[in-house]
Design a protein that fits this description.
Layout (H helix, E strand, L loop, with lengths): L2 H28 L7 H13 L1 H11 L3 H37 L5 H4 L1 H27 L3 E10 L6 E8 L10 H13 L4 E4 L9 H5 L3 H4 L8 E3 L3 H6 L1 H10 L3 E2 L3 E5 L3 E5 L5 H5 L6 H4 L9 E4 L6 H5 L5 E4 L11 H7 L5 E5 L2 E5 L17 E10 L1
Parallel strand pairs: 1-12, 2-3, 3-4, 4-5, 7-8, 8-9, 9-11
Antiparallel strand pairs: 2-12, 6-7, 10-11
Helix pairs in contact: 1-2, 1-4, 3-4, 4-6
Length: 386
């Protein structure tokens, strides 16, 4: 990403982040009685914790170490708390607004407002702690999603193929050795013929991946036909060339706007991420250009990180497309946003003769939380028929 673009993007993020935190802070401060010594402690703790996310983003690039890791974890959890606090404060303010017209709050709310404010503050805090805890446990326990699909093509050699697919792993400080090892164990337990990673394997900066030796886990994946992957937007955010080199050095073959003919049985097509032009100034190939060298009389599997233009792809001889990117919003209610943006935010759909699956992803970005969806590894039992 060009320096100017990065500065503009970072400035927008900083302004929005600061505004949301300030809104939460003001409402929280108003709940503490004037003159109480807790107001100062609240201010110090609030802004100290709120600053950790921005501080962590800077330190991960410049000074990766144990302290940076601790700050990253605190900042990541704060993003989750910030979301739940923000939703609570918005709902409370909306209730107050409607009450000014409808007067549905009991008179006891106004007789002595100080206790009411404190009760509201601790209720919001308690509910947020519960939601964060539930979301964290959910995010740490991925499921195996199983699909049974059939592809019929004139030149298809009848047979079966087991594919293990994962997307949006986000290896780094948060998704580190323990979860990477669990993923590899679950994949190897499937005894897959082929392993596919549909982008965002690493979480931006490569330094935590290298420091935690996370590539070692990937190199232990066992698969008859190999491990193939594509770039996602996060590979580009952290530096695509170094990410690709690291992954390929650990047994992951990266497909970048190209195709391979595997086992003389089917084609595997991998696209560079849609955001490539934004970060490099260079266009990615059009799918039609890649497909010139593909014989669509054979089965064709496409990996494209961001699930756009699905109907167009269905008309190009693609039999199965695997995507990720959406996280299905990761935390409710953001799934309503991804549902509005993407034709498929999560799950399976058939368009024409093409099977599409968009994974909710294995890891997390930002807060290590998931609410309203499950992290997953996808096991695809694929049958070829002529």
């Amino acid at each position: 990403m060009k320096t100017t673009q990065f500065l503009i993007f970072f400035s927008i993020v900083l302004v929005v982040y600061g505004a949301v935190n300030f809104y939460i802070y003001i409402r929280g401060l108003q709940a503490i009685p004037t003159g109480s010594g807790w107001r100062l402690w609240f201010s110090l703790i609030f802004w100290g914790v709120a600053s950790t996310f921005i501080l962590a983003r800077i330190l991960e690039r410049t000074y990766p170490c144990l302290f940076t890791g601790i700050i990253t974890w605190i900042g990541s959890f704060w993003l989750g708390f910030m979301l739940f606090f923000f939703l609570a404060v918005v709902l409370i303010d909306l209730a107050r607004l409607f009450n000014s017209f409808l007067h549905f709050f009991p008179s006891s709310f106004y007789a002595d407002p100080a206790p009411t404010k404190l009760i509201t503050l601790f209720t919001v805090l308690g509910l947020s702690v519960i939601l964060v805890a539930v979301s964290f446990i959910n995010a740490r326990n991925p499921r195996i999603k199983e699909l049974n699909l059939t592809i019929s093509k004139p030149n298809a050699i009848p047979g079966e193929l087991t594919i293990a697919m994962a997307s949006d792993i986000h290896l780094g400080t948060i998704i580190a050795s323990r979860k990477a090892n669990r993923m590899v164990e679950k994949i190897n337990a499937m005894n897959p013929d082929l392993v596919l990673f549909a982008g965002d394997i690493v979480d931006e900066d490569l330094a935590p991946v290298i420091n935690n030796n996370l590539g070692e886990a990937l190199s232990r994946i066992k698969s008859r036909l190999g491990v193939y992957a594509i770039t996602g937007n996060h590979e580009y955010i952290g530096g695509v060339n170094s990410a690709v080199e690291y992954l390929e050095n650990h047994g992951v073959r990266m497909l970048r706007d190209t195709s391979v003919f595997l086992n003389e049985q089917f084609y595997l097509v991998g696209r560079d991420d849609r955001d490539k032009p934004r970060f490099t100034g260079k266009p990615r190939k059009e799918l039609a250009e890649i497909m010139v060298s593909v014989d669509t009389a054979f089965p064709v599997i496409l990996m494209d990180h961001q699930p756009f233009n699905l109907a167009k792809h269905a008309q190009m001889g693609i039999d199965l497309q695997l995507s990720g990117h959406t996280h299905h919003g990761q935390i409710w209610p953001f799934n309503y946003i991804t549902d509005a943006i993407y034709e498929i935010s999560w799950g399976y759909r058939q368009i024409g003769n093409t099977h599409f699956y968009v994974s909710s992803g294995y890891g997390t970005w930002g807060p290590p939380l998931r609410l309203g969806n499950r992290p997953e590894i996808v096991k695809i039992n694929l049958r070829f028929a002529d």
